[in-house]
Design a protein that fits this description.
The protein is mainly α. It has two helices and no strands. The longest helix has about 35 residues.
Length: about 80
């Protein structure tokens, strides 16, 4: 018997039905991350659960830090090149 492969899904505990897959979020630069962090502010208005907001902030901080370091590193390399020339 062959088993078909299906992507994993999240099941809503209350309804017992699969939750739709959330859209992919663009987080390729620090501005993208900053924009999503600003969305966390919606938790104050009740649009986003506070615990979800905290988890999202934690993840976004983890994503943003390497991007920030990469930007600083590139700027430093450019400055060093200019100083040597």
């Amino acid at each position: 018997m062959s088993r078909e492969k299906h992507p994993p899904v999240t099941i809503d505990a209350a309804a017992g039905k699969p939750d739709p897959t959330p859209p992919k979020i663009k987080l390729s630069n620090i501005e993208d991350v900053r924009s999503k962090m600003a969305k966390i502010y919606e938790a104050r208005s009740g649009k986003l659960d506070i615990s979800d907001a905290g988890r999202l902030a934690y993840v976004l901080t983890g994503i943003g830090k390497p991007i920030e370091v990469e930007v600083i590193e590139k700027r430093l390399i450019d400055l060093e090149r200019k100083m040597l020339n």
